[in-house]
Amino acid sequence: MSKPGIAVVPATEFTRGELTALWNRAYEAYFVPVQFDEERFARHLRRAEADLALSRVMAVDGVACGISLAGRRGERGYLAGFGIAGSHRRQGLAGRLIAAQASAWSEAGLHRVWLEVIEQNPARALYSSAGFEELRTLDVLEGSFEASADAVQPLKLALPRGDLAAVHAMCAEVSRPTWRRELPTVLDAIDRENAVAFGVSRGAAIVGYAVMPPPAGDNPGALLDAAAIDEAAAHQLLDALAAARPGIRWRLVDEPTGSPLFKAATARGATAVIRQIDMALTLHRPVNAAPSP
User: Fold this and answer.
1) Strand bridging mode 222-223 / 249-256
2) Residue 35 sits in a domain of what CATH number?
3) What is the DSSP letter of 271?
4) Is 268 in contact with 145 (CB distance < 8 Å)?
5) Most buried residue, 10, 19, 86, 253, by CB count within 10 Å?
């Protein structure tokens, strides 16, 4: 029997509809539901700043069966999705696809690439074998909070863009945000999805913030981002959230284990419902690499 014809090509060779269908096949029977229609897939691409020319699709005998989505910000990259369709798993294809993607990143001049993988996902071993280093754990936190008896300060409504950028930078110094909670993604949600940023202050300084969808959204308890400069500020933020939307069960994705907000939230009963591993790959640029834009 002859070997099957395997090709790895840029994702730009496929339509948005074809990529959406391939994404859904690649994430069949995944740990959490991530089935997208074209609109949600487009939002995912936008939030991740996915570069389809840099992203890769694998085909076997002309049938697309693997997808690797690559986000890019300057010389930094992000693996925004990766998978092999169920019909083609356990054939060694994932290793070939991640190797092809790493080569594309290197040739494009990227220096470092990040990803998050669910702790028990077998793909964790694949990424390790491809050179990704495990950095820390991240948790999906869920919890409902009651305001403390001495809580007095409400959220500052509609935090100005400059104030949000300043407090985001301060919190990032304490606990680095993941790609999908970096400032460009947060601002995109505010500009394109009517998300709202709130803040809490200590004296004149903003010391914590939260970004959430509008109250009328499908999931008003989904925090798109939230952080605080220390544990006291985190408790202050939780008090303000409890007062702003009483009875809501909040959910925050990609919270670094041990961050100020993690400590405050878990002390008040929040639980980690999913744990992920934050991983990074350092790339060595080849001599003929294209310069970064």
Assistant:
1) parallel
2) 3.40.630.30
3) E
4) yes
5) 19
Per-residue pLDDT of 136-185, as tens digits, reads 999 999 999 888 767 666 666 679 999 999 999 999 999 999 999 999 99
Domain that holds residue 71: 6-110
Whole-prediction pTM: 0.90
Residue 204 lies in a domain: yes
Task: Give the Cα separation of 279 and 174 in Å (integer).
Answer: 19
Which residue's entry shows tokens 């509809």?
17
The DSSP H or E segment spanning 16 is helix 16-26
> What's the token pair of residue 183?
């400032």
In three-state secondary structure terms, 49 is: coil
Task: Please report whether residue 48 resides in a domain.
Answer: yes
